[in-house]
Amino acid sequence: MKNRTRKIFILMCAVITAFVITACGGSGNDEVASADTSSDSAQTEQTAEPASEETTDDSSDAAVTGKYATLQEFLEDDITQEQLNTQIESLEGSGITADVTAEDNKLIYSFTVENPDLAAAMDAATVESTLESQASTFEAIASSLKAAVEVENPVVVVRYLDNTGAEITSKEFAG
């Protein structure tokens, strides 16, 4: 039974890792493309109507960076929401639900193990070991956030919760 539980847990971690990579990686790339489109539009508008120096400077700064001011703004973006919802829906039937939130410089992935038997069988040491083996993935996500958001030192937090909401384990990953 214990061996079967570990295999299920490892499979869940693989699904979750794919979820995390797709959700964050895709959004960042789409934002760069979106920023390029915005830049072209801004240049067209400036050519059509001269703007004051102050407005031109502000517009060019936004067009150059193409970044969100906060992680919360990043999460609230329609494209990001669409991708996250698709990934969260893909977890249906796996016994895990996911929620992604932002707090200051932290992007927080909360995975709730809905199956009480599976949650009870998951000990913190096993989960932490698995998270540690995936550290490079989560660190890469934290690093990629720098390209999409104007936040210094973004951190990815991965939390596993049992079906009552009690934390099984949590780990932070910096870029």
Order of helices and strands: HHHHEEHHHEE
What is the residue-averaged pLDDT? 73
Strand content: 15-25%
Give unreliable regions as ranges.
4-8, 25-64
Question: Helicity range of the residues?
Answer: 55-70%
Distance between the termini: 37 Å
Rg, please?
19 Å
| General shape | globular
Number of helical stretches of at least 4 residues: 7
Number of domains: 1
| Number of separate strands | 4
The secondary structure category is alpha+beta
- Sheet with the most strands, sense and barrel status: 4 strands, mixed
Strand order of the largest sheet: 1-2-3-4
Written overview of the protein:
The chain has helices spanning about 1-50, 55-65, 70-75, 80-90, 115-120, 125-135, 135-150; strands spanning about 95-105, 105-115, 155-160, 165-175. The radius of gyration is 19 Å and the shape is globular. Residues about 5-10 and about 25-65 have low confidence and may be disordered. It has a four-stranded mixed beta sheet. It is an alpha+beta fold and about 180 residues long. It has one domain.
In short:
The chain has 175 residues and is an alpha+beta fold.
Question: Could you list some keywords that capture this structure?
Answer:
175 residues; alpha+beta; 4-stranded mixed sheet; 7 helices
